[in-house]
UniProtKB/TrEMBL annotation, chain A:
The keyword Repressor does not apply. The keyword Cell inner membrane does not apply. Its main location: other. It comes from Parambassis ranga (Indian glassy fish). InterPro entries: VPS35L (IPR029705). PANTHER family: ESOPHAGEAL CANCER ASSOCIATED PROTEIN, VPS35 ENDOSOMAL PROTEIN-SORTING FACTOR-LIKE. This is VPS35 endosomal protein-sorting factor-like. Transmembrane segments: none annotated. Residues 32-120 are annotated as: Disordered. Residues 53-71 have a biased composition (Low complexity). It is found in: Endosome.
From TrEMBL, chain B:
The lineage of its organism: Eukaryota, Metazoa, Chordata, Craniata, Vertebrata. One of its GO terms (biological process) is intracellular protein transport. InterPro entries: Arrestin-like_C, Ig_E-set, Vps26-related. PANTHER family: VACUOLAR PROTEIN SORTING 26 RELATED. It holds the Pfam family Vps26. This is Vacuolar protein sorting-associated protein 26C. Component of the commander complex that is essential for endosomal recycling of transmembrane cargos; the commander complex is composed of the CCC subcomplex and the retriever subcomplex. Component of the retriever complex, which is a heterotrimeric complex related to retromer cargo-selective complex (CSC) and essential for retromer-independent retrieval and recycling of numerous cargos such as integrin alpha-5/beta-1 (ITGA5:ITGB1). The recruitment of the retriever complex to the endosomal membrane involves CCC and WASH complexes. The keyword Plastid does not apply. It is found in: Endosome.
Length: 969, 297
């Protein structure tokens, strides 16, 4: 094809805009909106009382989108149903007598059941296991096949021959298989116990019930062993797990035995249970009653306590007091206390309404309390080299639990009575501690002063006082004591706490009291507390062992102090932070502070105290970044720092803001996202200045915005991400232009052009390698749009930047088999066409674009046209190349040809015959291979017709006639 | 060719009383039809007496004279020779528990020297080539409840070094005072033995307190008799140095089968005793014995 002559179509943007406007249809702000989700909110009322039509709710589109999770729960969740039922039960239930009955039953059940406010055992387990540890060697002594001949499970003989032979087999199998495992570490021990748990399940699954029972008996026997006494609470936890498993297995089995025709209802009675199941159940109880040793007999019977439901109504009610009394036979007070705890636990699970045996348990405990200081215990402690205070703490979990069970929904007078009883005991610190832990915090808080008095009266050598104050503090953290007493309480408590010598004990206690202090007092008191903590934790670098507690202190302060100016004005806060000397911990602390800051700080700030402190904190975070830091970590740190930077505002003091940015840049140079944010901030600053000056800068502000531009200009090159650099250059260039800094803008754009060749062909996006082509095209198009308003540099030739850009595009090593380069050319044509208009589509106030510079100079226009012709030539060449390779490139060729056709139609002056001929050729070319979408073609044609109807476009009708639609064959 | 033969009693607990009928089904299961020469079922109640090894010397001459005593026996033919169809076949049966003459049905009891046992035995005869099948099934007989009212006769006890008999050196004993009571020595067999024990004081720490249930079985005839006491079970009620002055419950369930109402006949006797055994830390063993009379109401 011969070289074409380009003529841009003259455009009158205003007229076009006018025409568009008249055609614009009024937008209906009706119900319908394509983005509005179509929702049918299913409002199922639980009682079905109001079955409103669903359509009515669906039209009220303001309702929140239905959450699939909540809708799942809706109605099917037994708990919420239950709650709903109890909330509205009387009116709803009075419809008929039968529903009324159900209501009554439900109410009864509710009284029985333990509510969610009862802290379950499972939540204590972990604590106990973590707290009571040992490095001593442990041993497990399992003596399977014991008691042979003595008590050959009398109950079982009645069952059948089968069982008896099995029993014998078992005895043979494990004849005297006494296994003593010595020298176990704590972990080994736990593993062994877990193995036993597994083998219990296996034995059960393989129908070896007797073996299962033996395992359970042997395990519970381990509980009578108090060697390595520090580990006892943990041992208790491990072994009662096995007992729980066993209890569940037995119950489930008997339950399924009864569910032959249909499963038993939940609230079944004895009459529903069939004889076989009863007999099996009875067998279990007989078998257990003949266990020789006290402790296993007790524990195993407690484990299957629930099975009494199958036998008779009052079984549990009678068994609990009996088992309670049985515990009196246990000589070791620690073993007895834990047995009581277990019994209370099982009792709470099975029959929470039977409070009497709980109370009895506690009274028995008090009755045997003097044993704790008895001779046997003393000898044992001496032997094991355990101090009395440590020994006493071993009781805490058990007594806490017992008291918690008692205190649960207990009336105030009962609690008072319990407390009075504890008071009268000698050496009652242990009990006092448990009372404070287990009773309602409100109860404790109301009597805080009394408690302090009691704590003071306690024996110095007994239960550690810091633990007592810790327990008190824990209660006070959840419930408020009377206002008038608060300061006294704090003073009294702190007086004791500050005397605690061991740093570890001290910090454990102090950490708890920080919450109380923060809750009720001002920064002054908190500051004092912090100072005290620093004083205690600094010697011998004691803080190194207390990071978790110190972190918790910070967390607590942050939950109560949201005003950061107050927070940082605490003298001791920053020195406190200095105690976190381990890098990872320090960063974590800083992060937590930042998170709270970002969440809570709503107003922009310029407070120097906050800024200094926050800069310090952010710097700490920033300085933790090194070569080994993970990307995610960097990202989260950056986000936090960015959050801070966005909160900083000096109001009208722009220079201060800029200098802050300068400082921040120096401080956070390793985190790219922060630098990007800084550049954005500075750009925003420049624009803000412009807004304040209403577009016309004074000498001073002009200098300032130039400084801003300079800031951006020197910051951008330090970024490593090429696309951040490109887009920031562009953006900063635009900002500079808007602020009439022409040479700066020029520099930005030149820099952008000059780094274009550096763009790699592929970049990694979210860890995957992707072609960069789409990003690059995007950027270039954006850039071209900006170039329309950039005036030519007086020292360089016409269209210096456009040419430079196009040159770069030409030299860039594009991907093989890619049309990207040509697509850039195609998109450059509209720019050039726009440049040749008399009045430009858009312009920047107070900046003269080329339109004014050249004023429609024919030389300028011909320059543009020449450039267009070169571009079209290049495009046509490329089309030709594509034409050679038939199959592969036909589609690409068609698409390119069509897009060029579009450009010609929109921007070319088709009065020119050659150009119109070219357009027709391109149309035909794009339809040649039938890859063109017919619908698009049709619409293009329609548009062209529409265009032709307009004044001075009539020449198009000729062209239209020559554009043939290709019917698909 | 697997054939299963089983006897299933109607009552899950297999407990029957005199005058009642032992009812149940014989369950036959086979994959294919089975030819047989008749199925019969027999019920038998026996008292087995055995002489203890230490008495054997004395009674060697009479060894054979201690024959089992038959209490009840009956036989029925369940099915005549014929064929059983494949699958599961259930043949119901019923035996009345009636004694002949003035014989009494003693309660089921499994002891060492005396055994009272009731069994059902089912035999399936087959041709010469195939083995006969048989199946045993024990059922339990409880004797008729006692008509007279049980007088519990509680008993109090106090144990001090001075109350003890049969000790070698009284002076070596540490001082102690243990009190307590049993709620009943005339016990109802279905109810637990209860009571309490209180360690008022003790110089030596206590290691364990146990309840030992003992059976005393007497076998004899005109020529003489043998009396043996053996342990049935030993239940620990206190472990370790228990709190002084605190009452510790005595509680023991009488094991089934191994206990029966106290029995006295011309040929044998079965009696029970309970020992409260206190073990001190220096391994001193203190035992207090209480004869019990068990009965069924």
């Amino acid at each position: 094809m011969a070289a074409v002559q380009w003529r841009s179509r003259g455009r009158s943007y205003d007229a076009e805009l006018q025409r568009c406007r008249t055609e614009a249809a009024a937008i209906e702000f009706g119900d319908y909106h394509p983005l509005k989700p179509i929702m049918v909110t299913d409002t199922k009322t639980r009682r079905g009382a109001r079955k409103g039509s669903t359509s009515s709710t669906s039209s009220s589109s303001s309702s929140a989108p239905s959450d699939p999770l909540s809708s799942m729960l809706d109605g099917t969740d037994p708990l919420s149903m239950f709650a709903a039922a109890s909330a509205t039960d009387t009116p709803a239930m009075s419809h008929s007598s039968s529903t009324g009955d159900i209501g009554k039953k439900r109410r009864e059940k509710e009284e029985e059941a333990v509510g969610p406010d009862f802290e379950p055992w499972s939540s204590k387990r972990g604590d106990i296991l973590a707290r009571f540890t040992t490095t001593e060697k442990l041993s497990i002594n399992l003596f399977m096949g014991s008691d042979k001949g003595k008590a050959p499970s009398p109950g079982s003989s009645a069952v059948s021959e089968k069982v008896r032979t099995r029993l014998e087999e078992l005895d043979d199998l494990e004849e005297g298989s006494q296994r003593e495992l010595l020298n176990l570490s704590q972990q080994d021990y736990a593993n062994r116990i877990e193995e036993l748990n597994q083998s219990l399940k296996e034995a059960w699954a393989s129908d070896q019930k007797v073996k299962a029972l033996k395992i359970v008996i042997q395990c519970s026997k381990l509980l009578s062993d108090t060697s390595v006494i520090q580990f006892y609470p943990s041992k208790f936890v491990l072994i009662t797990d096995i007992l729980d498993t066993f209890g569940r297995l037995v119950y489930d089995r008997i339950f399924t035995m009864c569910s032959d025709p249909q499963p038993l209802p939940d609230g079944f009675t004895v009459e529903d249970v069939n004889d076989t199941a009863k007999e099996t159940c009875l067998n279990w109880f007989f078998k257990i009653a003949s266990i020789r040793e006290l402790l296993p007999r007790l524990y195993v019977e407690a484990a299957i306590l629930k099975c009494n439901r199958f036998l008779n109504k009052s079984g549990i009610q009678e068994t609990l007091p009996r088992l309670t009394a049985m515990i009196r036979g246990i000589g070791d007070p620690l073993v007895a206390a834990y047995a009581r705890a277990y019994l209370c636990r099982v009792g709470m699970e099975v029959a929470p309404h039977l409070k009497d045996s709980l109370n009895q348990n506690f009274f028995d405990l008090l009755g045997t309390f003097r044993q704790i200081s008895g001779e046997s215990v003393r000898n044992q402690l001496l032997l094991q080299r355990v101090e009395v205070p440590e020994y006493l703490t071993l009781y805490s979990p058990a007594i806490n639990w017992i008291l918690q069970c008692i205190a649960y929904r207990a009336p105030e007078p009962l609690l008072m009575e319990m407390m009075e009883r504890c008071k009268t005991m000698a050496n009652n610190a242990l009990l006092l501690n448990s009372v404070m832990r287990a009773f309602r915090p409100e109860f404790v808080a109301a009597r805080a002063t009394d408690f302090i008095g009691m704590i003071k009266d306690c024996d110095e050598s007994g239960f550690p006082k810091h633990l007592l104050f810790g327990s008190l503090g824990r209660s006070l953290a959840c419930a408020d004591p009377p206002e008038s007493e608060r300061l006294t309480i704090l003073n009294e408590a702190w007086k004791v706490i500050t005397k605690v010598r061991s740093p570890q004990d001290y910090i454990n206690c102090a950490e708890i009291w920080v919450e109380f202090t923060c809750r009720h007092f001002t920064k002054r008191e908190v500051n004092t507390v912090l100072a005290d903590i620093i004083k205690h934790m600094t010697p011998d670098r004691a803080f190194e062992d207390a990071y978790p507690q110190l972190q918790s202190v910070i967390r607590k302060i942050l939950t109560y102090f949201h005003d950061f100016s107050v927070l940082f004005s605490m003298e001791r806060f920053l020195p406190f932070l200095d105690m976190f000397q381990k890098d990872s911990v320090r960063v974590e602390v800083c992060k937590s502070i930042m998170e709270v800051f970002i969440k809570q700080q709503v107003e922009l700030t310029r407070d120097p105290v906050i800024l200094n402190a926050m800069l310090h904190i952010c710097k700490t975070m920033h300085d933790s970044v090194n070569a080994l830091t993970l990307e995610d970590e960097k990202r989260s740190l950056s986000l936090l720092i960015i959050g801070f930077i966005r909160m900083v505002s000096f109001g009208r003091d722009f220079e201060q803001q800029l200098s802050f940015c300068v400082e921040a840049r120096a401080t956070f140079c390793n985190l790219e996202p922060v630098l990007v944010q800084l550049i954005h901030t500075v750009n925003q600053l420049a624009m803000e200045t412009r807004r304040v000056m209403r577009g016309s800068h004074s000498r001073k502000t002009a200098a300032f915005v130039r400084a801003c531009a300079a800031y951006s200009f020197i910051t951008i090159p330090s970024l490593s991400s090429i696309f951040s650099r490109l887009s920031l250059y562009l953006l900063s260039g635009q900002v500079a232009l808007a602020n009439q800094c022409l040479s700066q803008a020029d520099a930005f754009f030149k820099a952008a052009v000059s780094i274009l060749p550096e763009v790699p062909r592929s970049i990694s996006v979210e860890g995957k390698l992707r072609s960069s082509e789409a990003f690059l095209l995007d950027f270039i198009n954006n850039f071209l749009a900006t170039l329309l308003v950039v005036p030519d540099h007086p020292e360089h030739g016409v269209l210096y930047l456009v040419r430079g850009l196009l040159n770069m595009v030409q030299d860039y090593t594009w991907e093989d088999n890619s049309d990207a380069k040509v697509r850039v050319y195609v998109s450059a044509l509209p720019l050039l066409a726009a440049m040749s208009q008399e009045a430009y589509l858009y312009s920047i106030p107070k900046v003269d674009s080329n339109e004014t510079l050249y004023g429609g100079d024919p030389k300028f226009l011909s320059e543009i046209n020449k450039l267009c012709e070169t571009l079209i030539g290049q495009i046509l060449d490329h089309l030709k190349v594509l034409g050679r390779d038939e199959q592969q490139c036909a589609r690409r060729q068609g698409a390119l040809a069509f897009s060029l056709f579009g450009v010609l139609l929109a921007h070319g002056d088709l009065r020119n015959n050659k150009l119109s001929q070219l357009a027709i050729n391109l149309w035909n070319l794009s339809h040649k291979h039938g890859y063109c979408e017919t619908r698009v073609s049709v619409r293009t044609l329609e548009y062209t017709k529409h265009l032709a109807q307009q004044p001075d476009m009539s020449h198009l009708s000729d062209t239209i006639q020559r554009l043939a639609l290709q019917s698909r064959t | 060719m697997s054939v299963t033969l089983d006897i299933r009693l109607k009552r899950a607990n297999k407990v029957y009383h005199e005058g009642e009928s032992v009812a149940g089904v014989i369950v036959l299961g086979c994959k294919e039809a089975l030819q047989h020469h008749g199925i019969c079922l027999s019920m038998e109640g026996l008292v087995n007496l055995q002489l203890s090894s230490k008495s054997v010397g004395v009674f060697e001459a009479f060894y054979n004279s201690v024959k089992p005593i038959q209490l009840i026996s009956s036989n029925i033919e369940v099915a005549k020779a014929g064929k059983i169809p494949a699958g599961k076949t259930e043949i119901p049966f019923e035996f009345p528990l009636h004694t002949k003459g003035n014989k009494v049905l003693y309660e089921t009891y499994h002891g060492v020297f005396v055994n009272v046992q009731y069994t059902l035995r089912c035999d399936l005869k087959r041709s010469l080539l195939a083995k006969d099948l048989s199946r045993n099934c024990e059922f339990i007989v409880h004797c008729q409840p006692q008509k007279a009212k049980v007088v519990p006769t509680p008993v109090n006890f106090t144990i001090t070094p001075d109350t003890l008999q049969n000790i070698r050196e009284r002076s070596l004993l540490p001082k102690f005072l243990i009190r307590g009571h049993l709620d009943a020595t005339n016990c109802v067999i279905s109810q637990p033995l209860t009571g309490e024990v209180i360690v008022e004081n003790s110089d030596a720490p206590i290691k364990s307190i146990e309840l030992q249930l003992v059976r005393v079985e007497t076998c004899g005839c005109a020529e003489g008799y043998a009396r043996d006491a053996t342990e049935i079970q030993n239940i620990q009620i206190a472990e370790g140095d228990v709190c002084q002055g605190l009452s510790i419950p005595i509680y023991m369930v009488f094991p089934r089968l191994f206990t029966c109402p106290t029995l006295e006949t011309t040929n044998f006797k079965v009696e029970f005793e309970v020992n409260i055994v206190i073990v001190l830390h220096d391994d001193h063993l203190i035992t207090e014995n209480f004869p019990l009379k068990l009965c069924r109401v």
